[in-house]
C-alpha cells in the first residue's frame, strides 16, 4: 500500500516538474497575486493629486497649504489660475480635487470667519470619500491650531480645547495598512483556488489522455489513487502558503503573531474543502477545460462573498447569509485573526468547527462520487 | 477441463449504455496458453466486452471470473492477475519509457529491488531497452504499442487483455508484435514475483495455481490475418458472439461455397456474377473476385458462369472453388446478423 502510494506520488511530482503550465500555476501565480493584491488592491489613499488655486497668496494661505502637504494625504501637483483650468484638470483626471483659497482669506482668518472651498472628483467614490474626510480633518486640525495661536496672541488661555475629544487607538494595525487585510486573504485564495483547480485538472487529465484506463486495471484502490494524486498538491499548497507568508512578512511587513501550528492546522482544514471541491469537479467534468470552468464557477462567488475583497459587514444581510455557506469565509476570519491579532484557538473555535464540518462534508461527497471505473 | 481451469471465464455478460445494449449475453472461456481473438466490425461490442472483463466498466448482469477471482466482488485480486492494453495509448507521455514501466510495476506491487531487473528484461524483450530514457511522447506509434505491451507484461500476468493492439501500426511492427505474443504464450510468465529466473529463457519453473501452461490472451482485432493466428476466434455482432471456433472450424462454415474468379474487365465480371441467382455475394480480393454461392451450388455456378461471361464479351482467366478465408466468413456472418 505504502509502495503503491509512494509510486503515485513520485509519478505526480515528476509530471508537475515537467509541466510548465502547472509549474507556473504553482510558483508564479501566488507571487503575482501577492504583489498585485499587496500593492494594487489597496484602499489606502495617499498622495492624492491636488490642484491649488491660491488667490490669497499670503503667508496665511501658505501656512494652510503646508498643513495639507504635511498630512501626506495630498500631493499638491498643480497651481491653478482660473476656473477653466480647474475644470480641465479634474476632467482629465490630473487632479482629484482643487483647493480654492479666496483673495480675502488672510483678512478673514484674523477675524475668525475665513472660508476655503474644496472641489472633489466624486467619480471614484472610495478615493473621493477618503479625500473628503481627510480634507475635513486637516481643516479642523488647522482651525483648532489657528484658534489656539490667536488666543495665545491675545493673551487669553493658551490652549483651545474642543468640547469632545475622541481619542482613538487602533489595535493590531495602527497605520491601517490595507495590505494587512489583503495578504492573509491571498493565503486563503491560494489554498482555495490553486488547490482545487490543480486537483480537478490532475484527475481529469488522466481521463482526457486515456491514462485512467491503465490505472483502473491496476490493483490500486480508489482511495489510494485519490490520496496519491492529491497529496503532492497538499504539499505544494503548503509550500505556496509558506512562500506567501515569508514574502508577506519580510516584504510587506505583515506580522505573524499567532501560532504557526494553528495556522498550518487551519490551512489543512481549508485544504480539505478545496481539494474536495477539486475532486468533486473531476467527477463531473470530462476535459481539463470543463474541470477548470466548473471549479471557477464555485470559486468566483466564493471570492467575492467570503470577505476577501470587501469586509463581510459591508455586505447586505442577504449576501452575508449566503457567505455562511462558503468555507473560505471562515478561513479568512481565522487567518486574519491568527496573523494580525495573534489570537489563540478559543477566539476562532466556531470558525474552526465550521471549517472542519465543511471539509469533511465536501471531501466525503467527493469521495462518494469518485469511482475507479470508466462509467 | 473443469470450469475453474479457465483463466478467463465469463458467463452471459450484459451491458447497456442507456437504451442501447453494447454487450448482450457474451460468454467467453479461455484456457491458459490460448490466444482468443475477438473480431467484429466497429461498434460490435469488443472494447466493451474487454472493459467488462477487467472491471473498467460494471456489468449490468452476468459474471466474469479471472483466474478464480470474481471481477465484481474480488476486483483488485482479479486485476492483479491481469495485463491490459487499451485501444488508445494510455501510458504517460511525459514520463520516460523506464519511468512508465517502473510506475506500473510498482503500483502492481513489485518491490524496489525487483522492478529494475524486471523492467530491463521486459524492455529487452520488446526491443525498447535502448530507448529506456526517452520520453514516451517521442516514441513512434509502434514503439508505443510495444511499450504498452511491456507495461502490461511487467508483473507477469496470467491473463492478457489486448484491445486492438496493432490498429494503426505498420505491418512490420504488427509482425514483431505477434512474434512477441506467440513467444509469450509458449514461454509462460508465472514465475513467483520474487523469482530471479528468466521466464524468457524457458527454464523449468513451478506451476501457478490452475495453470495449464502459458498465459491466457484475449485480443480484439479488425485484421483477419491476425484472427487466423489465434487458437480460437469469436465473431461479435451487435453485442453478441454469433460464431466461435478455431479458425479452421469457422472456415468450414463456408466449405465449398467460395469461388475465386479472375479475368477482365473486373468490374464487368463482378456485374455478371452478381446477376447469377446462386451467387449470394461478390467481393474483390486484390485483382480477383470471391463469389459466395448458395449451399451445394458451387458446381452449378462453375458450369454456368463461363458461358455468361463469354456471351457478355468479358474475358475469363480462372473460375475455381477455393477454401474460405476468415474474411469470407466474417463478411458472411456480418450479413447473416443483418438479416
Task: Please sum up the structure shown.
The complex is a heterodimer of chains A (375) and B (339). With 375 residues, chain A is mainly α.
What does this structure look like?
The complex is a heterodimer of chains A (375) and B (339). Chain A is mainly alpha-helical and 375 residues long. Chain A has helices spanning 2-18, 20-40, 59-70, 83-91, 105-111, 125-153, 179-208, 211-216, 222-250, 260-284, 288-305, 317-323, 327-341, 349-369, and strands at residues 48-54, 74-79, 97-101, 117-120. Chain A folds into 2 domains: 25-41 and 177-369, no CATH class; 48-153, D-Maltodextrin-Binding Protein, domain 2, CATH 3.40.190. In chain A, 38% of the residues are buried. The model of chain A has no long low-confidence stretch (mean pLDDT 87). In chain B, the strands form 3 sheets. Chain B has a 6-stranded mixed sheet, with helices on both faces. A 4-stranded antiparallel sheet of chain B has the order 2-1-4-5. Chain B folds into 2 domains: 3-246, P-loop containing nucleotide triphosphate hydrolases (Rossmann fold, 3-Layer(aba) Sandwich), CATH 3.40.50; 256-322, Alpha-Beta Plaits, CATH 3.30.70.980. In chain B, helix 3 crosses helix 4 (112-126), helix 3 packs parallel to helix 5 and helix 4 crosses helix 5. The longest helix of chain B is centred in the middle third of the chain and has 16 residues, at 171-186. In chain B, strand 4 and strand 5 (69-70) form a beta hairpin. Chain B is of the alpha/beta class. The interface between A and B is medium-sized, with 27 and 33 residues.
Total discrete domains of chain B: 2
Strand content of chain A: 5-15%
Radius of gyration of chain A: 28 Å
Q: How many helical stretches of chain A?
A: 14
Q: What strand line-up does the widest sheet of chain B have?
A: 6-7-8-3-9-10
Number of strands of chain A: 4
Give the averaged pLDDT of chain A, no decimals: 87
Pattern of helices and strands of chain A: HHEHEHEHEHHHHHHHHH
H/E topology pattern of chain B: EEEHEEHEHHHEHEHEEHEHEEHEH
| Structure summary, number of beta strands of chain B | 14
Amino acid at each position: 500500500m505504502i509502495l503503491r502510494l509512494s509510486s503515485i506520488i513520485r509519478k505526480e511530482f515528476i509530471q508537475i516538474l515537467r509541466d510548465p503550465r502547472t509549474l507556473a500555476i504553482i510558483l508564479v501565480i501566488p507571487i503575482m497575486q501577492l504583489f498585485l493584491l499587496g500593492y494594487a488592491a489597496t484602499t489606502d489613499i495617499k498622495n492624492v493629486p491636488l490642484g491649488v488655486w491660491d488667490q490669497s497668496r499670503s503667508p496665511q494661505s501658505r501656512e494652510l497649504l503646508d498643513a495639507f502637504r504635511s498630512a501626506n494625504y495630498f500631493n499638491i501637483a498643480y497651481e491653478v489660475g482660473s476656473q477653466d483650468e480647474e475644470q480641465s484638470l479634474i476632467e482629465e483626471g490630473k487632479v482629484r480635487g482643487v483647493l480654492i483659497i479666496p483673495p480675502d482669506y488672510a483678512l478673514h482668518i484674523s477675524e475668525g470667519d475665513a472660508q476655503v472651498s474644496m472641489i472633489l472628483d466624486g467619480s471614484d467614490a472610495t478615493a473621493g470619500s477618503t479625500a473628503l474626510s481627510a480634507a475635513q480633518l486637516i481643516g479642523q486640525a488647522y482651525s483648532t491650531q489657528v484658534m489656539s495661536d490667536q488666543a495665545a496672541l491675545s493673551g487669553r488661555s493658551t490652549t483651545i480645547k474642543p468640547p469632545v475629544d475622541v481619542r482613538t487607538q487602533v489595535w493590531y494595525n495602527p497605520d491601517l495598512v490595507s495590505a494587512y487585510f489583503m495578504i492573509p486573504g491571498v493565503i486563503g485564495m491560494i489554498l482555495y483556488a490553486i488547490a482545487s483547480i490543480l486537483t480537478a485538472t490532475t484527475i481529469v487529465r488522466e481521463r482526457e489522455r486515456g491514462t485512467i484506463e491503465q490505472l483502473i486495471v491496476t490493483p490500486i484502490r480508489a482511495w489510494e489513487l485519490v490520496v496519491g494524486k492529491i497529496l503532492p498538491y497538499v504539499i505544494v499548497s503548503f509550500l505556496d502558503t509558506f512562500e506567501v507568508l515569508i514574502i508577506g512578512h519580510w516584504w510587506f511587513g505583515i506580522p505573524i503573531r499567532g501560532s504557526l501550528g494553528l495556522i498550518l492546522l487551519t490551512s489543512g482544514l481549508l485544504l480539505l474543502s478545496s481539494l474536495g471541491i477539486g475532486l468533486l469537479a473531476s467527477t463531473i467534468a470530462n476535459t481539463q477545460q470543463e474541470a477548470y470552468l466548473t471549479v471557477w464557477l464555485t470559486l468566483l462567488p466564493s471570492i467575492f462573498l467570503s470577505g476577501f475583497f470587501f469586509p463581510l459587514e459591508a455586505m447586505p444581510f442577504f449576501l452575508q447569509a449566503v457567505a455562511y455557506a462558503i468555507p473560505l469565509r471562515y478561513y479568512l476570519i481565522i487567518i486574519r485573526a491568527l496573523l494580525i491579532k495573534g489570537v489563540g484557538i478559543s477566539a476562532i473555535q466556531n470558525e474552526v468547527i465550521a471549517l472542519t464540518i465543511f471539509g469533511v462534508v465536501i471531501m466525503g461527497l467527493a469521495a462518494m462520487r469518485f469511482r475507479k471505473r470508466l462509467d | 477441463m473443469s470450469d475453474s481451469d479457465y483463466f478467463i471465464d465469463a458467463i452471459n455478460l450484459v451491458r447497456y449504455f442507456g437504451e442501447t445494449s453494447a454487450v448482450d449475453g457474451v460468454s467467453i472461456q479461455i484456457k491458459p496458453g490460448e490466444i482468443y481473438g475477438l473480431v467484429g466490425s466497429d461498434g460490435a461490442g469488443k472494447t466493451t466486452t474487454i472493459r467488462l472483463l477487467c472491471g473498467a466498466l460494471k456489468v449490468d448482469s452476468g459474471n466474469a471470473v479471472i483466474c478464480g477471482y470474481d471481477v465484481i466482488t474480488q476486483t483488485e485480486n482479479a486485476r492483479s492477475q491481469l495485463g491490459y492494453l487499451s485501444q488508445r495509448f494510455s501510458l504517460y507521455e511525459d514520463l520516460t519509457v523506464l519511468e512508465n514501466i517502473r510506475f506500473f510495476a510498482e503500483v502492481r506491487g513489485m518491490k524496489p529491488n525487483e522492478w529494475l531487473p524486471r523492467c530491463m528484461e521486459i524492455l529487452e524483450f520488446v526491443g525498447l531497452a535502448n530507448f529506456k530514457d526517452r520520453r514516451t511522447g517521442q516514441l513512434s506509434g509502434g514503439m508505443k504499442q510495444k511499450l504498452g505491451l511491456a507495461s502490461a507484461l511487467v508483473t507477469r500476468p496470467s491473463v492478457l487483455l489486448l484491445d486492438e493492439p496493432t490498429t494503426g501500426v505498420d505491418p512490420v511492427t504488427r509482425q514483431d508484435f505477434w512474434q512477441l505474443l506467440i513467444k509469450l504464450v509458449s514461454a509462460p510468465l508465472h514465475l513467483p514475483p520474487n523469482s530471479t529466473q528468466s521466464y524468457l529463457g524457458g527454464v523449468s519453473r513451478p506451476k501457478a495455481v490452475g495453470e495449464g501452461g502459458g498465459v491466457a490472451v484475449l485480443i480484439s482485432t479488425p485484421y483477419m490475418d491476425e484472427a487466423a493466428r489465434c487458437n480460437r476466434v469469436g465473431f461479435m455482432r451487435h453485442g453478441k458472439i454469433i460464431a466461435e471456433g478455431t479458425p479452421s472450424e469457422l472456415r468450414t462454415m463456408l466449405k465449398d461455397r467460395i469461388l475465386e474468379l479472375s479475368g477482365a474487365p473486373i468490374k464487368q465480371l463482378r456485374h455478371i456474377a452478381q446477376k447469377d441467382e446462386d451467387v449470394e455475394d461478390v467481393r474483390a480480393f486484390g485483382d480477383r473476385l470471391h463469389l459466395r454461392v448458395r449451399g451445394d451450388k458451387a458446381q452449378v455456378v462453375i458450369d454456368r458462369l463461363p458461358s455468361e461471361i463469354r456471351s457478355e464479351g468479358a474475358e475469363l482467366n480462372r473460375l475455381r472453388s477455393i477454401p474460405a478465408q476468415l474474411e469470407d466468413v466474417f463478411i458472411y456472418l456480418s450479413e447473416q446478423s443483418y438479416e
